[in-house]
Amino acid sequence: MFSSVTLFSIFLMAVGFILVVGGALALWRFASLHAKGTPVIARPLPAADGAAWRHGVMVYSESVLNVYKLRSLRPGADARFSRHDVSILDRRKPTSVEAGFFDPGLGVVRIETRSAGQWELALDPSGDTALVAWVESSPSIRQTRELPTDIEKRFRAAMSRQRGGQWGNRR
User: Fold this and answer.
1) In sequence order, what E strands does 33-160 have?
2) Which of 15, 22, 30, 59 could connect to 37 by a Cys-Cys bridge, CB 3.0–4.6 Å?
3) Beta strands 87-92 and 79-82, pairing class
Protein backbone atom coordinates (compact mmCIF):
# COMPACT_ATOMS: atom_id res chain seq x y z
CA MET A 1 0.00 0.00 0.00
CA PHE A 2 1.11 3.53 -0.73
CA SER A 3 1.42 5.90 2.17
CA SER A 4 -0.39 9.23 2.07
CA VAL A 5 2.96 11.03 1.74
CA THR A 6 3.82 9.04 -1.39
CA LEU A 7 0.41 9.71 -3.00
CA PHE A 8 0.74 13.40 -2.19
CA SER A 9 4.24 13.45 -3.73
CA ILE A 10 2.96 11.80 -6.91
CA PHE A 11 0.10 14.30 -7.08
CA LEU A 12 2.50 17.25 -6.66
CA MET A 13 4.83 15.87 -9.35
CA ALA A 14 1.88 15.46 -11.76
CA VAL A 15 0.68 19.01 -11.10
CA GLY A 16 4.24 20.33 -11.50
CA PHE A 17 4.63 18.47 -14.81
CA ILE A 18 1.36 19.91 -16.13
CA LEU A 19 2.43 23.42 -15.11
CA VAL A 20 5.85 23.06 -16.77
CA VAL A 21 4.34 21.73 -20.02
CA GLY A 22 1.66 24.46 -20.01
CA GLY A 23 4.28 27.14 -19.37
CA ALA A 24 6.48 25.80 -22.16
CA LEU A 25 3.53 25.83 -24.59
CA ALA A 26 2.60 29.38 -23.58
CA LEU A 27 6.20 30.55 -23.99
CA TRP A 28 6.47 28.84 -27.41
CA ARG A 29 3.21 30.42 -28.59
CA PHE A 30 4.26 33.88 -27.42
CA ALA A 31 7.74 33.64 -28.97
CA SER A 32 6.59 32.16 -32.30
CA LEU A 33 3.62 34.49 -32.85
CA HIS A 34 5.02 37.73 -31.50
CA ALA A 35 7.29 38.28 -34.53
CA LYS A 36 4.96 36.71 -37.08
CA GLY A 37 2.16 39.23 -37.60
CA THR A 38 0.66 42.61 -36.76
CA PRO A 39 0.26 43.45 -33.05
CA VAL A 40 -3.36 44.01 -32.02
CA ILE A 41 -5.52 44.41 -28.96
CA ALA A 42 -8.88 42.84 -29.78
CA ARG A 43 -12.25 42.26 -28.18
CA PRO A 44 -15.66 40.97 -29.26
CA LEU A 45 -18.64 43.28 -28.87
CA PRO A 46 -20.72 44.05 -26.91
CA ALA A 47 -18.36 44.79 -24.04
CA ALA A 48 -18.22 47.33 -21.24
CA ASP A 49 -15.84 50.31 -21.47
CA GLY A 50 -12.31 48.98 -21.03
CA ALA A 51 -13.42 45.35 -20.61
CA ALA A 52 -12.56 42.16 -22.55
CA TRP A 53 -9.51 43.54 -24.41
CA ARG A 54 -6.85 40.89 -25.19
CA HIS A 55 -3.37 41.43 -26.58
CA GLY A 56 -2.64 39.39 -29.65
CA VAL A 57 -1.27 39.13 -33.14
CA MET A 58 -3.14 39.30 -36.46
CA VAL A 59 -1.78 37.02 -39.18
CA TYR A 60 -3.08 37.65 -42.70
CA SER A 61 -3.47 34.94 -45.31
CA GLU A 62 -5.00 35.17 -48.77
CA SER A 63 -8.55 34.61 -47.56
CA VAL A 64 -8.53 34.57 -43.74
CA LEU A 65 -7.40 36.88 -40.97
CA ASN A 66 -6.35 34.86 -37.93
CA VAL A 67 -6.19 36.52 -34.51
CA TYR A 68 -4.05 34.77 -31.92
CA LYS A 69 -4.32 35.85 -28.30
CA LEU A 70 -0.86 35.97 -26.75
CA ARG A 71 -2.02 34.48 -23.45
CA SER A 72 -3.85 31.47 -24.79
CA LEU A 73 -2.92 27.80 -25.00
CA ARG A 74 -5.22 27.09 -27.94
CA PRO A 75 -3.16 25.49 -30.74
CA GLY A 76 -4.93 27.42 -33.50
CA ALA A 77 -6.30 30.90 -33.97
CA ASP A 78 -8.60 32.31 -31.31
CA ALA A 79 -10.65 34.21 -33.92
CA ARG A 80 -10.89 33.81 -37.70
CA PHE A 81 -12.33 36.36 -40.09
CA SER A 82 -13.02 35.50 -43.72
CA ARG A 83 -11.83 38.18 -46.13
CA HIS A 84 -15.14 38.24 -48.01
CA ASP A 85 -17.04 38.59 -44.73
CA VAL A 86 -15.22 41.55 -43.11
CA SER A 87 -16.65 45.08 -43.19
CA ILE A 88 -14.95 48.03 -41.54
CA LEU A 89 -17.71 49.99 -39.79
CA ASP A 90 -15.93 52.93 -38.16
CA ARG A 91 -12.93 54.23 -36.25
CA ARG A 92 -12.67 56.00 -32.92
CA LYS A 93 -10.15 57.23 -30.40
CA PRO A 94 -9.66 55.19 -27.23
CA THR A 95 -11.84 56.12 -24.26
CA SER A 96 -10.17 57.50 -21.13
CA VAL A 97 -10.30 54.03 -19.54
CA GLU A 98 -8.74 52.38 -22.62
CA ALA A 99 -6.08 55.09 -22.93
CA GLY A 100 -4.81 53.99 -19.52
CA PHE A 101 -3.59 50.63 -20.84
CA PHE A 102 -3.25 51.20 -24.61
CA ASP A 103 0.05 52.33 -26.07
CA PRO A 104 0.00 55.93 -27.31
CA GLY A 105 -0.98 56.25 -30.96
CA LEU A 106 -3.42 53.33 -31.09
CA GLY A 107 -6.81 53.82 -32.67
CA VAL A 108 -9.84 51.56 -32.43
CA VAL A 109 -11.34 50.04 -35.60
CA ARG A 110 -14.76 48.41 -35.39
CA ILE A 111 -15.35 45.55 -37.84
CA GLU A 112 -18.33 43.32 -38.49
CA THR A 113 -18.60 39.82 -39.91
CA ARG A 114 -21.62 37.63 -40.51
CA SER A 115 -19.99 34.68 -38.77
CA ALA A 116 -18.26 36.32 -35.77
CA GLY A 117 -20.35 39.43 -35.16
CA GLN A 118 -18.78 42.78 -34.29
CA TRP A 119 -15.22 43.17 -33.00
CA GLU A 120 -13.03 46.09 -32.04
CA LEU A 121 -9.35 46.07 -32.93
CA ALA A 122 -6.88 48.53 -31.39
CA LEU A 123 -4.19 49.12 -34.02
CA ASP A 124 -1.38 51.53 -34.72
CA PRO A 125 -1.63 53.51 -38.00
CA SER A 126 0.40 50.94 -39.97
CA GLY A 127 -1.77 48.08 -38.68
CA ASP A 128 -4.89 50.03 -39.64
CA THR A 129 -3.49 50.59 -43.13
CA ALA A 130 -2.65 46.88 -43.47
CA LEU A 131 -6.17 45.87 -42.43
CA VAL A 132 -7.80 48.29 -44.88
CA ALA A 133 -5.51 47.14 -47.72
CA TRP A 134 -6.27 43.49 -46.98
CA VAL A 135 -10.05 44.07 -46.93
CA GLU A 136 -10.15 46.35 -49.98
CA SER A 137 -7.94 44.18 -52.17
CA SER A 138 -10.31 41.26 -51.79
CA PRO A 139 -11.82 40.19 -55.10
CA SER A 140 -15.59 40.11 -55.32
CA ILE A 141 -17.01 36.78 -54.23
CA ARG A 142 -18.64 36.58 -57.67
CA GLN A 143 -15.20 36.78 -59.34
CA THR A 144 -13.65 34.04 -57.23
CA ARG A 145 -13.76 30.68 -59.02
CA GLU A 146 -13.68 27.49 -57.06
CA LEU A 147 -11.73 24.63 -58.53
CA PRO A 148 -13.89 21.56 -59.03
CA THR A 149 -13.13 18.78 -56.59
CA ASP A 150 -14.16 16.07 -59.04
CA ILE A 151 -11.99 17.28 -61.92
CA GLU A 152 -10.90 13.80 -63.03
CA LYS A 153 -14.49 12.57 -63.30
CA ARG A 154 -15.48 15.70 -65.24
CA PHE A 155 -12.52 15.26 -67.60
CA ARG A 156 -13.40 11.62 -68.30
CA ALA A 157 -17.05 12.55 -68.93
CA ALA A 158 -16.01 15.29 -71.39
CA MET A 159 -13.65 12.90 -73.18
CA SER A 160 -16.32 10.21 -73.50
CA ARG A 161 -18.78 12.78 -74.89
CA GLN A 162 -16.15 13.91 -77.36
CA ARG A 163 -15.42 10.34 -78.47
CA GLY A 164 -19.15 9.58 -78.74
CA GLY A 165 -19.82 12.66 -80.85
CA GLN A 166 -16.73 12.28 -83.03
CA TRP A 167 -16.69 8.53 -83.61
CA GLY A 168 -20.31 7.54 -83.14
CA ASN A 169 -20.76 4.04 -81.80
CA ARG A 170 -17.83 2.53 -83.74
CA ARG A 171 -15.26 0.54 -81.83
Assistant:
1) 38-44, 54-60, 64-69, 79-82, 87-92, 107-113, 117-123
2) 59
3) unpaired
CA within 13 Å, CB half, 26: 9
Contacts of 112 (CB under 8 A, 6+ apart): 86, 87, 89, 118, 119
DSSP annotation of 84 reads: G
Determine how many CB atoms are found less than 10 A away from the CB of residue 116. 16
Confidence band, pLDDT 50/70/90 cuts, at residue 112: very high
- Cβ neighbours for 43, distance < 8 A, ≥ 6 positions apart: 51, 52, 53, 54, 119, 120
- The proportion of the chain whose per-residue pLDDT surpasses 70, expressed as a percent, equals 84
The pTM of this model reads 0.67
* Other beta carbons within 10 Å of 81: 24
Contact 108, 118 (CB under 8 A): no
Closest CA relative to residue 54, chosen from 86, 81, 77, 24: 77
CA distance 27 to 35: 13
